[in-house]
Amino acid sequence: MTAKSTGSSPRASGPDPDALPEPTFTISALAKEFGITTRAIRFYESRGLISPERIGTTRRYSKRDRARLILILRGRNLGFTVEDVSGYLALYDSDPGQLTQTRHLLEKVTVAVSDLETKRHDIERSIADLNDIRARCEEHLKKNA
What we know:
By secondary structure, the chain is mostly helical. It is built from 5 helices and 2 strands; from the N terminus they run ααββααα.
């Protein structure tokens, strides 16, 4: 009769056979989830922003790849360039305390807010000018109708 393991003996190095496998995602599932094309995902991969596992020609994206894709899309939606996002992700990978990353992000966000406020002012001025032109046109048409 063999003794039953109590769990106190050291395990051989390697993956834990009792651990659940990490969920993976296909490129089409991620594209559908985020409302983007598979081509966009492949572009981010080609730029080194995500790196799925390859099994033949099939890509398997990890939870980490999915989380990075969320950050990429958020950054792009906020108007950051792919290079900005790439730099941000590189800092994320190299700075466990995320202090450098946070400073970098704060700087980029501050500039983006300033740019958007300038654009908003320009848009408001343009709307006012167009409304003035429209009012003059309407007045001219009423006088000459």
